[in-house]
Amino acid sequence: MAEKEQEKNNSNINAEKQEKLKKKSEVDAKDEELKNEDPKTLRQKLSNKNQDYVFRLEKELQRQGSLSREEAVAMTDGLLSEIVIAQRHGQPANGLYMASPQIKAEEMLHPHQKPVETPFWQRAVDGALLYLAIFVGLFGVIALFENNSKAQNNSQMGILTLASVGILMGILMGVFMVKYNDWVMPKNGQRIGLPKLLLSGLGIAVVLFVWIWILSLPAIRVINPILPGAVDIVIAAIAYGVRYLFRQHYHITGSSFASRPQQHK
After folding, report:
1. Nearest 5 degrees, angle CA 135-CA 137-CA 139?
2. Secondary structure tally for the chain: helices H, strands E
3. Which residue from 251, 242, 259 is spatially nearest to 123, judged by alpha carbons?
4. Which residues, at least 6 apart from 108, have a Cβ–Cβ distance to it below 8 Å?
5. How far is Cα 73 from Cα 177, in angstroms, rounded to an integer?
6. Would the pTM of this model clear 0.90, i.e. be above it?
7. Across residues 71-98, what is the average pLDDT?
8. Burial class of residue 231, CB neighbours in 10 A (0-12, 13-18, 19+)
9. If 140 and its partner were Cys, which of 65, 161, 219, 229 is the partner (CB 3.0–4.6 Å)?
């Protein structure tokens, strides 16, 4: 009786294996079929998200490579089969290439350029200028809608507070981007614990609040004046313009929130 039961279990296991192999074979056959399909047919199978990715990629190829639309379309035609195959398996194009259309276009136009890591100080300056523009610009817009000067003084922060917090946030973001891979995908296989990560974030928040409180003291107000909203917006625009020129000069591409290697020129 036990032998018959064992044979039955083995039979069921073999049947399940055969079914899995059959499904895998069907999936592989479909993937192989997609590799040989016409680009026009493949374009019709793209999801809305992937259609948008391909559209923006073609625009970037035209812009960065000074290509005609036909040339850009011909370049993206070569990617369509792998995009559709990845799409069938639940992976969108931005996840497949781990790059925005801007970055993917650069890689396609310069495939033989060796990537080099963006220096930390460049990421830090880039992030600091961005956060400076965001913080000062945001509070400048808020100030414009507050007509009562007393209410404005109660809600606004001094320019030194806004600038220092923005710059500090940019530097911290630079540190985070440098350490991200070590934390999430460490080489030694040991990830940073969630409690430690949360405590680190809490510690940073406490330091920022203490710093803001110190700069809000009346004795510091002399060197930390509250500027009119329009002036804050002008400072934010200047900071963003300086950031643009800085990125152009050092050939920094990608987002400050997700920096990437540069390319050798």
Report:
1. 70
2. 12, 4
3. 259
4. 61, 75
5. 34
6. no
7. 89
8. middle
9. 229
Ramachandran bin of 90, using left for φ above 0, alpha for ψ from -120 to 50, beta for the remaining angles: left
The per-residue pLDDT for range 115-149, each reduced to its tens digit, is 566 787 888 888 889 989 998 999 899 888 876 55
CA-wise closest residue to 57 among 44, 38, 43: 43
Tell me the angle at which helices 194-215 and 159-184 cross, rounded to the nearest 10 degrees: 170
**Look-up of token digits 């899995």:** 20
What's the rounded Cα separation, in Å, for the pair 64 and 73? 14
Instruction: Please state, in angstroms and rounded to a whole number, the distance separating the CA atoms of residues 111 and 8.
Output: 56
Is pLDDT above 90 for 56? yes
Q: At what angle are helices 159-184 and 229-250 packed, to 10 degrees?
A: 40
Rounded distance between C-alpha atoms, residue 125 and residue 174, angstroms: 8
Task: Compute the residue count for the chain.
Answer: 265
Q: Which residues, 6 or more positions from 180, have their beta carbon under 8 angstroms from its beta carbon?
A: none
H helix runs in 36-148, sequence order: 39-45, 48-65, 69-77, 80-88, 93-97, 101-109, 120-144
Residue 87 has pLDDT above 80, yes or no: yes
Please, how many CA atoms are within 13 Å of residue 5, restricted to the half-sphere of its CB?
Answer: 2
Q: Which helix (H) or strand (E) holds 204?
A: helix 194-215
In this structure, of 47-51, 52-56, 201-205, the range with the lowest mean pLDDT score is: 201-205
Q: Which pair of structure tokens corresponds to residue 173?
A: 């973001």
**Residue 139 CB neighbours (<10 A):** 23
